[in-house]
Amino acid sequence: MRKEVPMLITFVVAIIVMLSSITTGPLPDVFKNHISPWMTIVSAFAVGLASVNLTRVHGQKISRKRDGWVYSLILLGSMFFYGIFRSYIEINPSNMAAAENYALCYNHILSPLSSGIWACLAFYVASSSYRAFRARSMEATILLVSAVVVMLGAAPIGAQIWSKFPAVQRWLMNVPNMTGQRGIIIGAAIGSFVTALRVLLGIERGHLGGTQ
Amino acid sequence: MNWINKLQTIDRRIIYILLLVVCAIPLVKPLGVPLQVTDMTRDVYDIIEGLEPEKDVVLLSFDYAPGAGLDAHIVPVAVVEHLAQRGIKWVSVSFNPEGPMMADLIIKDLESRGFKYGIDFANLGYLAGQETAIRLFALDCLTITTDTRGNKTTDLPVMQGIKTAKDFAFVHQFTSDDPAMWIRQAVDPMGLRYAVGIVTVSVPSAMPYYNSGQIKGLLGGLKAAAEYETLLGKPGRAVAMMDAQSMAHLLIIGFIFLGNLGYFLGKKQGK
Questions:
Q1: pLDDT per residue over B3-14, tens digit each?
Q2: Distance between CA atoms of residues B244 and B30, nearest Å
Q3: Does the ipTM exceed 0.90?
Q4: Sign of CA dihedral B178, B181, B187, B189
Q5: Is residue A93 predicted with pLDDT exceeding 80?
Q6: Which of A127, A136, A172 should be substituted to probe chain B, the one whose Cβ sees the most B Cβ atoms within 10 Å?
Q7: For the purposes of burial, counting CB atoms within 10 Å of the CB of B232, is it exposed (0-12), middle (13-18) or buried (19 or more)?
Q8: A126, A176, B88, B113: which is deepest, by most CB within 10 A?
């Protein structure tokens, strides 16, 4: 029963979702009014569950003072601080000062830190491009030339050096890139469909926590 | 170590410092390198130009976090500026928990310029569930009962007459992720007019959807924002940053050239 009931629920829900997209009867309403809100609730619940797990794992790390326990403390401290702060704002929506301060913490701590990490990537990309792009073989040379053309075509300076750079860059993006991307998208879609069909028919049972 | 070997093993700290310098100079003193506007950017501009200020409402989906950096955030800044210039009303929603805060950054600026929250725009906040949430919201926009300021969604003047995503004249998503979720769940099934603003690195993966017509306009990161500012006739931060990007690209290409020069000379010497 532990496997049969979840499999039955999966089958029924999947059939309703699939049919709701291609029929005009009551099923689209069942999807809209019941299944879709349930999925949102389940997703929100998953965030709560993840918070509990995070607290458990990092709480143990802090209590046993394992390596890097300070970072765990900062993580849990930030999580609870923001959780409590946000809850207070949700309960008191008219308190604009609290909302302003919440945004202040966010805009002046998280945003600069996240943007800083992103900006650092530019330096790593510059250094790794210099080290990796060597014309050691025919394939590496094609990659190197393509990369240089795309870089020059994407930046305004490229058109000033040679007016055809943007056109060549567009061709690279529209033809070889598009071909590869379409292949990946279609391949992934077929793979997803097959996996969905396996779950629907009960062949794939990994999500039930057991073996195949 | 001879100079040929040195060409192949330039200290990364030198690369970092030079990159910092070449990026900083154009930001302080823009070079004004002329910018070509691509069709992907012009398409979004034309759609917004074709909207009616009194009648149409635009849906903006803020689906990125600060981690995506300025490359993601500068695009909605340019698009919202266009909407503000034309007096087009808009509503934002997010399927990324940090999206509402990003929308609020833009809203704060608009409010300081006299635009009215609730009348000219509103922020409906975050709806959990990603792909399923997109579907739910598209079918029933009033599933979000309150906005980020605690107002009832049905009471917001900007939301009057809006029930499903089809009631929006145009949907524009800003994301650091894959636009396929919106396309699968709402754009194709409901026939929405949809464009996407995406970080530069994700442009290649979004191109097939643009060429197939599922995405009506595609704004790829900083470059597209700079092109948009040019179309608006208000060159701003993005245009200045494109100069920095040009210089950075040239520097990187220069280092790649030096590395390969060292490699080939070394190979020749070895023979």
A1: 888 888 899 999
A2: 8
A3: no
A4: positive
A5: no
A6: A127
A7: middle
A8: B88
